[in-house]
DNA sequence: TTGGGTGCAAACTATTTGCATTCGA
DNA sequence: TCGAATGCAAATAGTTTGCACCCAA
């Protein structure tokens, strides 16, 4: 946490955890993938592809826009991160994959977690024929009080 | 319903209802706004801007892409339709504004209503400080059974 | 060596905007 | 008439793709 990996180069606990995480999900560890994973998993957070790109390039290891997009898509497919679709203009990548929902401030664009205990669904609806459940997203849209 | 207004030009029940609807929301009735409203409110449905554009141009009255986007945005702001954000690639406009939620088939892109009675939230979470509730969206993502 | 990963730039798509023209009260 | 609405095209933004190059196994 708190930016250890921003200051110290080379192997340390966080780096090792990241390597293990990639390995667990069958993702070949490359420099940029490790770098992107380190940014995402430094703490639970919501980042857009653009924000990830910005942070990648602050550090030594550089990744192109295409690589960032490809990597985030890969991580999402492999289940390391969750895509959060709340804004038609951009996708957020959530490094917290445990069950939870979101507040989205439509004025500021701020995305915040809602603990899953605070919000419980009563009665899963009958699914249409021929489909299976993928996930359930609950978005509580809020606006800044004037 | 069933295309009455596609065949008969001039005033009829549906046209009058559309005129009244626009007036109620303080929207100046122009030809293209009436046309777009007629398409949307022919029945409860989910249409993307592109689909609306396609349908507009099948009929006599034409509207440009910009006008369709502007009009849909206007309708959403004025509360005639609800924007449904489930796909990062496009916004759907839902002509059903009563409380309900959605199934979204991530394979086919099909959006279907879930009756609000079938899915009840237990416990509204405490809102963060300084914000007020706008709306709550529940999206049940499903995929086609292989 | 050799296939997957990366970088770059170009392509693409949905949406927005600027501005001149046209419409409707 | 006169301001609002429209149409067109160009601009924008996020994301994807094609292809040559490079690196790690």
Helices and strands in order:
The structure is a homodimer of 146-residue chains.
Chain A: H1 4-7, H2 13-24, H3 31-41, E1 46-48, H4 49-56, H5 65-78, E2 82-87, E3 90-94, E4 100-105, E5 111-115, E6 120-122, E7 131-144
Parallel strand pairs in A: 4-7
Antiparallel strand pairs in A: 1-3, 2-3, 4-5
Helix pairs in contact in A: 2-3, 4-5
Chain B binds a DNA duplex (25 and 25 nucleotides) through residues 28-33, 48-50, 62-67, 69-71, 73, 88-91.
Give your account of this protein's structure.
- Two copies of one chain form a homodimer.
- Chain A is an alpha+beta fold and 146 residues long.
- Chain A contains five helices and seven strands.
- The first copy, chain A, has a three-stranded antiparallel sheet with strand order 1-3-2. The first copy, chain A, has a three-stranded mixed sheet with strand order 5-4-7, with no helix packed on it.
- In chain A, strand 4 and strand 5 form a beta hairpin.
- Chain A is globular.
- The termini of chain A are far apart.
- Chains A and B meet through strand 2, strand 5, strand 6 and strand 7 of A and strand 2, strand 5, strand 6 and strand 7 of B.
- Chain B binds a DNA duplex (25 and 25 nucleotides) through helix 3 and helix 5.
